[in-house]
Design a protein that fits this description.
alpha/beta; seven-stranded mixed β-sheet; globular; 7 strands
Length: 211
Amino acid sequence: MTGGPEVVLGSASPARLRVLRQAGLEPRVLIADLDEDALVAELAAAPPTEIVTRLAAAKADALIARVDSPDAVLLTCDSMLRIRGELVGKPHTPEVARQRWVQMSGQSANLLTGHCITRIVDGTPVDRAADCESTEIRFATVDTTTIDAYVSTGEPLAVAGSFTLDGYGGWFVDGIDGDPSSVIGISLPLTRRLLARVGVDVTALWSPRSR
């Protein structure tokens, strides 16, 4: 146990869980049942940063009833890539992933990650803070043979923007301008600031082994 609230990560992303564990947290994981594509379609007219932030908040709303701790902070996120004015999420199929990499090759894009922190006391949400982190990604120029090899690993199919920074995809990212943890899935600096806004010092959440 720590001296602070229980940390609950509302995400199926192993990358987000890994980032938090490496930074001293041991969250409980819950996964929201949410039709993200339908919600994105409803929010199509909204600014991109608002879309990802509202998606993160919607995930929290879908999970609040399942958080039964006396005191908890629920962390939820959503990432999408903005390239050439288009906002894209997970490709899901090899064909879409291949098309996106042809478009991304040699280009720059912005990875937007919406964050939502919900403070829950005795099952009731008592405070919330949300915001978006934007990071510029500079993609390498890659040929179609390399794209096919990367797509064949299966890695890009289930990740926002069809790439990872901390996996096979990292070979094809020439650089970033911004927060690397946000590109992996959850921004540690932004999460720290949002936790402070709901009255939680991140150091109170560190697991005993990290102290």
